[in-house]
Every structure is written in C-alpha cells, then in structure tokens.
Amino acid sequence: MLERAGVLGAFLGEKPFPVRRMSLHFGSREKCAVLPEPAYGLSRYTFDHLLWSNAVALGAQRVDDLAQPTVIAAGRPAGLESRGSRLFGFKAHFDGPVDDAVALYFLGQAYVGINCVEGGRTNVCGLAPESLLQRYGFDPQSLMETDSALRSRLAPLNRAMKWLFTGPLEFAQQWNFREAYLAGDALSFVDPFTGSGLLCASVTGSLAGLHAARQVPVAEHLRLCRQSISKPFLFSSILRGIASTEWAERLINLVPARVLFRLTRPRSRNAI
Q1: Is the CB of residue 100 less than 8 Å from the CB of residue 116?
Q2: Dihedral sign, CA of 61, 209, 272, 268?
Q3: pLDDT tens digits for 151-186?
Q4: How far apart (Å, rounded) are the C-alpha atoms in residues 4 and 235?
Q5: What are the distances in angstroms from CA 28 to CA 31, 106, 114, 148, 250?
Q6: What is the CA radius of gyration of the chain?
Q7: What count of other Cβ atoms lies within 10 Å of the Cβ of residue 253?
C-alpha cells in the first residue's frame, strides 16, 4: 500500500525498526512467536510528517480557513462514561537496549504495549480506566511496576520524554455518519494492542481520499471501509473482553499466535 501511494522509499528512509517477534503476557503466562511476516516500528509523528511532506511535494496546500470538511480523519469518539469509568491512553519513548519483539502486557483492566521505533527508541503505550490511573496518581510508571514481567522489561530503559495522555476514549465505529468521508480514528477507534491502528488508518484514509476525488457516495465509502476493518475491530473487542478475566491465562495457549496476528489485520486490497 505504501508503494502504491508513492511513499515506500521515504518510509524506509526513516529507518523504521524491524519487528520480527511478538510476545503476549497474561500474569505469569507468556506466549511468544515469530511474526508471519516482518513488521516495522515507526512513530506516529514521523509517519504523519512523512505523509504530509509527500502531499505538499505533490502540490497540497495548507488552508486555515473554516469550511465544511469533505474528509474527516481527526478526532475520535469521546464516549459517555461517567467520571472515573472513562478510558485514557498514555505514551512515552524510552532510551536503552533494543528488542525486535512487540510485547503486550495485560494487567486486568489495563494493558501496555512495547516496541522499538526509528532510532532504536522504545515506544511504551497503554490504556487504563481513569479510576485505576487515579489510584497511582496518574503515573503510568507506578502502575506498570505492579506487574513483575513488565517491570523487568522496563528496568534497563530510561524515559526520554514526559508522559503523553489522551482521552477520554471509546472503542467505537461510526457507520451512520453521512456528512463527510470518515477515516482513521474518526471512523473506527480500535484497541492499540492489535498493532493495526496505523494500518487501519492508512487503509481508510486512502479510501477516503480516492472516494472524495471520485465523488463516490459516502454510503459506498462506508461499505468498503467496513469490509476492510470490521473484522479486526470485532476480534479485538472479543480479545479485550477475555483479557480482563481470570480465564485469560488459561486460554492464551489454545490460540496459535499466527491466528491472533491474522485476525487483527485489516483487508487492504480495497485501498489505493
């Protein structure tokens, strides 16, 4: 897809970190596997800047005047949960030893994902309910230290930036919106632990641009997006529900890692 969009060379030029393995941690249980195909770790900021720079090189111009948008790719559902039950995300980059695995740590109500990105920095991000974060003074480090495996993984690393927070968040898809072409988180906010958020955003973003240019009906745009991303959203919702139960540690060894990976990938054949 990056090659078709004309940005593969620029993408590889940023030296994304190669990711070859995955590991899932549920309490004392760990499941490791080699990925069916290599992945790349690139920070969201770098990826966004790469796409914007390419668009400008092709003639795109920034316009600050207010107007009715044709494509909406910014923002996400904020949810209607009451204070304390709301969901928040946190993220920071760390310096230290590198690892070619994407690691996911499930902590009951919360989870944390770790992978290396360009420059050998380690990206640490997670999601947790507001009440749990409040218990630890909204300090993700204190929360993560409650898990022995996660504590060991972070021990040799040094945080290189302040924690970034976002929220409140809601896992939702906007299939009834007809006023513009939706893409990315504005259309579908999926669990970050699947590792498919950036890919889903790229798929739906490419579809939105193509459909807007060709004046494809918004309903048809939504239909094609649904074909591409509905399965990863459904499966991640199921996995999220299981991960928060006591059954997670028992069930983790029953599902092959390759199946977990495949079920969380969007279909990209409809994209440009």
Answers
A1: yes
A2: positive
A3: 999 999 999 999 999 888 877 778 888 989 999 888
A4: 28
A5: 10, 11, 18, 9, 10
A6: 19
A7: 11
- What does the domain layout of the chain look like in residue ranges? 18-58+78-169, 72-77+174-272
Which structure tokens are listed for 207?
A: 């579809």
Which residue stretches of the chain are H helix? 8-13, 44-57, 130-135, 140-144, 148-154, 197-214, 218-243, 248-251, 257-263
Give the SS3 label for residue 94.
strand
Distance (Å, rounded) from C-alpha 101 to C-alpha 22?
5
Inter-residue contact 118 to 38 (CB < 8 Å): no
**Cα angle 31-39-166, degrees, rounded to a multiple of 5:** 80
Reported CATH class of domain 18-58+78-169: alpha beta
Mean pLDDT (the chain) is: 84
pLDDT on residue 265: 61
Number of residues written out for the chain: 272
β partners of residue 33 = 22
Query: Which residues, 6 or more positions from 3, have their beta carbon under 8 angstroms from its beta carbon?
Result: none
Beta bridge partners, 81, equal none
Among candidate residues 63, 55, 121, 102, the one with its CA nearest the CA of residue 260: 102
| pLDDT for 272 beyond 80 | no
Is residue 147 within 8 A of residue 105, CB to CB? The reply is: yes
CA–chain centroid gap for 140, Å, is 18
DSSP H helical ranges for 58-179: 130-135, 140-144, 148-154
pLDDT digits (tens, 9 = 90+) for 34-86: 888 888 999 989 999 999 999 899 998 888 877 788 998 887 655 555 666 78
